[in-house]
Amino acid sequence: MIKNRWKSGIVLTMLIFVLIACQKTQHIFVVKNPPVDEKNDHYISNREPLIRTPFVKLPVGVIRPKGWLLKQLQLQADGFHGHLNEISKFLEKEGNAWLDPEGKGDHGWEEEPYWLKGFSNCGYLLGNERMIQESRIWIEGALNSQQPDGWFGPGFRSGGAATKLKGRTDLWPNMIMLFCLQDYYEYTGSTDQRVISLMTDYFKYLSQVPDEEFLVGYWPRMRAGDMLFSVIWLYNRTGDEWLLDFARKVHRNAAEWEKDVINWHNVNISQGFGEPGTFYMVSKNKEHLKAAERNWQKVKHLYGQVPGGMFGGDENCREGYSGPRQAIETCGMVEMMLSEETLLMISGNTKWADRCEDVAFNSYPASMTSDLKALRYLTAPNLVVSDQQNKSPGFQNRGPMLWMNPHRHRCCQHNSGHGWPYFTQHLWAATHDNGLGAVMYTPSEVTAVVGEGTEVVITEKTRYPFDETIEFTISSPKSVRFPLYLRVPGWCWQSELSLNGRPEKIETEPGTYICIDRKWKDGDRVALKCVMSTSITHWTKNQDSVSIDRGPLTYSLKIGEEYVRKGGTDKWPAWEIFPTTDWNYGLLLEDGRPAQGVEVKQRSWPQEGQPFQMELAPVEIRLQARKIPEWRLDHLGLVGTLQPSPAQTQQPVETITLIPMGCARLRISAFPYVLPDGSGQAWEEPETDGS
Questions:
Q1: Is 94 helix (H, G, I), strand (E, B) or coil?
Q2: What is the pLDDT of residues 539-572, one digit of tens each?
């Protein structure tokens, strides 16, 4: 009896020892942000006296796309943007000031660096030698253009659109080229010191320009946050303290975004609203970080009560034009994504990742044909005809704003390409405790140094945002301890975590990070399931219209699409798109919920790997609706404006199919709703039927 008790005591002691040992070797907990009390040993982060940000951006090329994201970049390389140097007159090398050692030429403004920013990074991520070598021509042109006093790039007659600035007075195009040079420097292993020398001498030159002559003109002042980011980037690599004074000079002369939304041009908003958040790294004044959030909220409150993460700014936001038929430039989308990616790195707040995914998954893909061989200038949440007819004054801009044409749309034609490459660069980040964070989810692979100096590879396998499960596999030459942070999206109220197939009990909250701090070994696997439930968003400021969401995706009516060739060339044709099925439905709600519920149907994955196609959408939602006969096209060919819900209709109940917004080039994403008895407010027909 005593002997058995003795054995039991030994067993109990051993169990306690094992439990304590496990606790010492593995911790799983939830945090709002990774810690910043230490500094990352392996990657360049903010130097003193800048604030230490929760995340450290990894160098270009460390993160590799996989799965459907890789497919987007391959399509981009094979599409119009990957061949824009063969299509665009702005990229003609003869007479181009960007390729002249003295910055002389008859053309050369924003288009070249706009294009190069996406083109070069797409080539880097794919290892595409054609694109890398073409990019090198323009990089060398910029590097070789620096003058003895520090100026580089176009310096004489060259100028651009909507500005009287010429040559050296226009600092805007150089801001974009600095990003291209920074990315090239990182991709090539930080060995080409010509980039550091050029940026140092250029900023020294600008530091001597009097304030009253610095950042003059419309575009430079509005978008000076880009230059500010580059100044901080350079300071973190050189430590030259005068750069901090220059950073303050840039902020001092930039548009005063810290005070309010001071301009309503859609791209200026997307690009400029976060400037005070960037300056926060210098000022350490949290009011600057709050100002970026306040700007974002104001724009969404006034013009962004629509699905898709963007807002109505079909050139400029205009009072009275805030419904879901108002559109946004493709430029506005990619610049919004980059601003949100930057603020995610600076603040660590998961809301910026949620917002970026909203734009990336729901709005951006629909701005182009699914083969990425043509794009349109404007895209709206509610858009059922995409032709070349003028839609002004319904849209502010005149002209063929909805024409899918690879030869048109100047700024968006060139700038649209940095959307997916920069998104890829921000999927993962380093942390100051020598760990890694998976901050946005798509199939990818990251190769990074962690812990005390071990290089690991983490492969992320998923079909997110179309599927709930995200799987991570660690490859390491030896066991290594480091923390791994996994974002819990703001919409995710239920998640499941497993480690090497074993479920882990952990209470998570939306908008946090799961930290797994343990000693990892080769082949370890982590699975995170973000349970996606179907929900309704009521856009009370837009006639109480409604949208259907599931996880990070919003769903649009599946509308038959007829593509009609209209212009372009045989190699690069242009298209108009017309509906072949009805679109004027109101969702049938009962007690605020879809009548008879919703049916979510997972479909087979597209063989070609491109999920953003109407006919091959991987997920469909089916629910009940009724037509509203009076809801028709107006005399411009735009969707008739929304009227108050519930809408009156006695049309029969039908089952309709919704697909992800990003799959729908023609779409209704913000619906009126109707009641089972058909009662409600009678709709008025548009003055003229444009159908």
A1: coil
A2: 999 999 999 999 999 999 999 999 999 999 999 9
d(Cα 55, Cα 429) in Å, to the nearest integer?
6
**Residues 515, 34: Cα–Cα separation, whole Å:** 8
Query: Distance (Å, rounded) from C-alpha 593 to C-alpha 591?
Result: 6
* DSSP secondary structure, 9-68, as one string: HHHHHHHHHHHHHHHHHEEEEEESS---SS--SSS--PPTTSPPPS-EEPPTTSEEE-HH
The pLDDT value given to residue 160:
77
Residue 228 identity (one-letter amino acid): L
Token reading at 646: 């519930």
First to last CA, the chain: 93
Ordered alpha helix ranges (H), 106-162? 111-126, 129-144
Q: Look at strands 436-438 and 480-488 and give their pairing.
A: parallel
- Nearest to 603, CA basis, from 549, 657, 530: 657
For the record, the structure tokens of 377 come out as: 């200038």
Distances (CA, A) of 494 to 465, 507, 593, 595, 600: 16, 9, 21, 25, 18
Distance CA 468, CA 182 (A): 35
Is residue 276 a contact partner of residue 356, using CB atoms and an 8 Å limit? no
Alpha-carbon distance of 354 to 144, in angstroms, equals 41
User: Tens digits of per-residue pLDDT, 381-420?
Assistant: 999 999 999 999 999 999 999 999 999 999 999 999 999 9
Residues of the chain with pLDDT under 70: 1-24, 157-158, 687-691
Look at the alpha carbons of 369, 375, 379, 385 in this order and tell me if their dihedral is positive or negative.
negative
- Report the C-alpha gap between 148 and 197 in whole angstroms: 12
For 609, the token pair is 């790997």
> Residues 661, 669: contact at Cβ < 8 Å?
yes
Q: Exposed, middle or buried by CB within 10 Å (0-12, 13-18, 19+), for 290?
A: middle
Q: What is the pLDDT of residue 158?
A: 66
The pLDDT of residue 687: 67
Q: How far is CA 429 from CA 62, 416, 440, in A?
A: 10, 24, 10
Per-residue burial over 535-559, b = 16 or more CB atoms within 10 Å of its CB, e = otherwise: ebeebeebbebbbbbbbbbbbbbbb
Half-sphere exposure of 408 (CA within 13 A, CB side): 20
Phi-psi region of 455 (alpha: psi -120 to 50; beta: other; left: phi over 0): beta
Domains plus CATH for the chain?
26-39+431-462+469-530 (2.60.420), 535-674 (no CATH)
Q: pLDDT at position 24, please?
A: 52
Give the pLDDT score at 164.
82
**CA-to-CA distance for 280 and 262, rounded, in angstroms?**
19
The pLDDT, as a whole number, for residue 26 is: 82
d(CA 258, CA 277): 9
Residue 177 in tokens? 């080229």
HSE toward the beta carbon, residue 235, CA cutoff 13 A: 22
Q: What is the model's pLDDT at position 19? A: 38
CA 529/CA 508 separation, integer angstroms: 12
Contact predicate 545/671, CB 8 Å: yes
C-alpha distances (whole Å) from 202 to each of 96, 142, 156, 174, 690 are 21, 12, 16, 10, 54
Residue 75, both tokens = 């399509």
